[in-house]
Write a structure and sequence with these properties.
This protein is α+β, with helices and mostly antiparallel strands and about 500 residues long. Helix content is about 30%, strand content about 25%.
Length: about 500
């Protein structure tokens, strides 16, 4: 991914190098209800999705109606050490890793969040678009938010709706109707997992907004335990077979040893985030379009077809580590050439560098990605990557490769040009920072190649994405068609919140 990985500092890689960088978006959660303490299993499962957030981690467990909580800044292994999880009793719980796309990165903004009335813990993945409206509505009910994280408003709205229906002992119907009301009040893109007592039993609750932009899957183990998570790899590590994905506009209630209750609470208009498949999710995860690895490979096949029409020569295809490797391998097979490792990646560089000048920035990138001379020298090379956002990192990579004197150097991207910011959980910059957004569509590839120092740049199209991943996708960062509408004030507030060097714009009016 090209989220300017080297411009601000060198970020730690996720598991197996997927993905990394100061721009790493999104968050991830896991939830479990079982017949034995869940804290150790939750910590292990959370490690499987560490790539979804490296700034903070947390866990909340539910035991005899009481919630125990621990959260802090840092990686899972740092925050949820064995001596910590030993203090979190209960046979139901949730855990979360966070990269802040809205709000600050302080400890109080880490998830999960909890309430006492009703006793409940909740975590989410996504972005809300009507935060000011929610804040005012909650204030009118005498409820004050204590953080800048947009998971807390969801929790408060849900708790408020439950309490309006049942002061004590909420039933399944109470929770279903409360979630229905949440989806009516809360706008944006969000998947949610929570633990609470429902019908007098410890219950894991998972729901998604009507578009299902952010992922959530669930499954049941042979011993009756249920799990829900942002990615299926969290279930895999705990030997929990995947039942399916929580349908958009649905809520699922899970209790150990029982069948799940799946209920519709809003009309479903599926818009799965295609960027999960292109870049963010682990390649071994399964999303709605299928195994992520397979989706990327099929995009590589489409990229080969586009390349063939250009008539350009190619000797070797090289993946920019690591996300793009399945697409690069598939493209090379289709073209009948070799896919080779052109870069060796140093996985032990943390956020340890402040890079004040060009020479230091180039040295930092070289420390992260070291080119192998024999792969590039005197050959027609195609570099494959998942996307180009600002263009900064790809320009540096191309410059680094040029010093090894390839015969020609081409860049092939297995997604369309990123021309629009994302407001649904991917920390995309504003439109004026997107290199493709500043160039005319007609000659974008030619002009971008010149800016990057490449002989050519090739992108896929929106039609290519649909052919590979099917319809019902959210690809707003490519085509500007937003599933959830935003006012100008809401857009400006979200974008200003992403720029720590500026004063946040006033919250949009409710």
């Amino acid at each position: 991914m090209e989220f300017d990985r080297a411009a601000e500092g060198i970020a730690p890689p996720g598991p197996d190098g997927y993905p990394e960088g100061p721009g790493c978006p999104l968050c991830g959660f896991v939830g479990m209800v079982a017949t034995e303490p869940v804290a150790p299993a939750l910590a292990i499962a959370l490690c499987a999705i560490q790539h979804r957030g490296q700034d903070a981690a947390g866990m909340a467990t539910f035991d005899d109606g009481a919630v125990s909580l621990h959260k802090d800044l840092g990686l899972v292994a740092q925050v949820l050490r064995r001596e910590i999880t030993a203090t979190l009793p209960g046979r139901a719980g949730i855990a979360h890793v966070r990269y802040p796309t809205v709000g600050g990165g302080a400890r109080q903004d880490a998830q999960p969040f909890t309430t006492r009335r009703p006793s409940m813990a909740l975590a989410h993945n996504g972005n809300l678009t009507n935060l000011a409206e929610l804040d005012q509505g909650l204030r009118d009910r005498g409820i004050r938010l204590t953080s800048q994280c947009d998971a807390e408003p969801i929790l408060c709205v849900l708790a408020d709706e439950v309490m309006m229906r049942a002061v004590v002992r909420p039933t399944t119907e109470d929770v279903v109707e409360s979630v229905r009301a949440v989806l009516g009040r809360v706008r944006g893109a969000y998947s949610v997992v929570a633990v609470m007592e429902v019908d007098g039993q410890e219950t894991l609750v998972a729901f998604r907004d009507s578009h299902g932009i952010r992922p959530c899957c669930y499954g049941q183990r042979a011993d009756g335990a249920w799990m829900a998570a942002s990615e299926s790899v969290a279930l895999d590590v705990m030997d929990v077979p995947l039942t399916g994905h929580v349908p958009p506009g649905h809520v699922v209630l899970m209790r150990a040893g029982e069948e799940a209750v799946v209920r519709s609470v809003a009309p479903a208009e599926p818009r799965h985030c295609i960027f999960e498949d292109i870049y963010f999710a682990r390649p071994d995860s399964r999303m709605e379009p299928g195994r992520v690895l397979d989706v990327r490979a099929r995009l590589g096949v489409r990229l080969a077809a586009v390349w063939k029409r250009s008539g350009r020569a190619v000797d070797v295809v090289v993946a920019v580590p690591d996300t793009s490797r399945p697409a690069a391998d598939a493209m090379a097979r289709e073209l009948g050439v070799r896919s080779e490792e052109g870069f060796i990646k140093n996985r032990y560089t943390g956020r340890t560098f402040i890079m004040p000048d060009q020479a230091t920035r180039e040295a930092a990138l070289r420390l992260k990605l070291n080119p192998i001379d024999e792969v590039f020298r005197g050959r027609d090379v195609v570099l494959v990557d998942d996307s180009i956002v600002r263009g900064t990192t790809m320009r540096r990579i191309a410059g680094m490769v040029r010093r090894h004197e390839p015969k020609s150097l081409h860049v092939a991207i297995y997604s369309p040009p990123v021309r629009h910011p994302c407001f649904y959980g991917i920390d995309m910059p504003s439109a004026d920072e997107l290199v493709a957004g500043r160039l005319p569509v007609a000659d974008l590839e030619t002009r971008l190649a010149s800016q990057l120092g490449a002989d050519s740049v090739t992108f896929l199209t929106g039609e290519d994405l649909t052919e590979v991943a099917g319809k019902g996708l959210c690809s707003a960062c490519f085509d500007g068609r937003y599933a959830v509408s935003l006012t100008v004030e809401e857009r400006n507030w979200i974008l200003s919140d992403r720029r720590p060097e500026t004063t946040r714009a006033p919250a949009p009016p409710g």
